[in-house]
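ok so dumb question maybe but i'm new to this and my supervisor (M.) told me to 'just get the structure for Pantothenate kinase' and walked off. so i did the thing. is this what she meant?? sequence i used:
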Amino acid sequence: MMNVIGASVSEAAMTSHHETRDIVLPNQTDHVPQVAVDIGGSLAKVVYYTPSEAKGGRLHFKIFETEHIDACIDFIAELMNSARALAPQVKQVLQATGGGAYLFYDLLEQRLPGVVVEKDDEMECLTAGLSFFITEIPYEVFSYNELDPNPIRFEETPKNIYPYMIVNIGSGVSILKVTGPNQFTRISGTSLGGGTLWGLLSLLTDASSFDDMLEMSKEGDNRNVDLLVGDIYGTDYSKLGLKSSRIASSFGKVFKKGERQDKAKFESPDIAKSLLYMVSNNIGQIAYLNAQQHDIKRIYFGGCFIRGHPVTMNTLSYAIKFWSKGDMKALFLRHEGHLGATGAFLKHRSLPKPNLSCAFPSRSM
Ligand code: ADP
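this is what came out, is it supposed to look like this??
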């Protein structure tokens, strides 16, 4: 078991803002024999531990594209080799979760000889990882409001964390209601998720990577492709409380009756912004409807789709605030993309020594 007392986010300077910050574990003393991987439809997330010479050690977070799973496995093999050099008598374990734990199971076994590959349930890992971040890590959970001079506001851990909802925005979207430790139901989901955004962007723009697209969208103006309330009314539709700047129809300006628009007229940054709004608004609204139906006030958003991107977080926050009239709260995490992998990492239980009478390790959390 990991000793997580005193765990905190490392505030050391980073070389790139795309990196995910380490977690410092000052009281971890035992050798750590496991690495965890969460292999999803788009990305493979790795969590691993390195001891420090003085005391304790660090959790590290890394991402690979699932398409390049071999590079990810090479990386894991190197980690396993260095850990084995430190403690040759201890069996190394890979805690694997996500669909890829099944899809690539044989490949993992074959490419990691001498390593025990344990499959862990994806949703169990997601909720275990999230609970760890909510309860153990200060300055992890925050709300976001771009109108605030300090848009990021860190949250104190509430006395009762349950019930809450987690909206995990990966390639697709899963919405879970969590009522206690390891007590959850998948109440909803949508296939319009991160994979949809990434796929449509690849078709419609010249963005060569996801982060490129996020960067590009900052300069974009969605009003060049979206049809706004003001485009239809010429003014606000005040009777319904709809401002003229509200999007009436995403991409509604592209099609013009009687004439085919010249595709070259539409700029990639504008398309990127519009698509980001479209997917985020839709997820925000579905999240609100589910929270309302289940009477839940705290909604955590996870998954690599968010990537700490201000427009995405603001759109989700605004949607929750707008639809719930301020009654519900959208919450984000600094390790949003690694919830499942962290949960898998923490699920590790020491394997029994070969000559012990109890042959089965306990797998309960
Ligand atoms: P999954 O487990 O389904 O792979 P993730 O939580 O890893 O889901 O999120 C995947 C989504 O994150 C992608 O569909 C895309 O929207 C977004 N994303 C973030 N970073 C990247 C990246 N470097 N490459 C591709 N997609 C990315």
